[in-house]
Design brief:
Length: about 170
Amino acid sequence: MHCPFCRHPDSRVIDSRTSDDGLSIRRRRQCPECGRRFSTTETASLTVIKRSGVVEPFSREKVMSGVRKACQGRPVTEADLAILAQRVEESVRSAGIAQFEANEIGLAILPHLRELDEVAYLRFASVYQAFESLSDFDSAIAELRAHPRTGSMPSIDEPASIQNPQE
């Protein structure tokens, strides 16, 4: 680690602490040349191997943009998408592997999206899993009905209640 002040190629670690989220380490360092102190933050990098073989860093923004279209017209906010992307990253990191196939990222998105919004889940799954017929949708809906989610939004079996403003 180069000193940011004098560019000396080495530094000594004085203190190390994990961040509150547990995903990074903050290190307090001191330069043996100039004696000045500085902090660094270290995180394990995640990389994604795309179908074409291209390797690129994992991006929460790409997860959000990939899911955004499926959530179009649904009661899903940007904050909800940001939380979903964070949860996807956490589940991927928990596997303890630094490099993933793009397909595995998509699989990690599905359970979190299902908890967020079942209609968006069906939209995303239909593209991601390449549904080819109505029977593919029927199977996915049957699976949703067989294993209802625990979220606060109505499940696919329950009609949304519409309140009459004059009652």
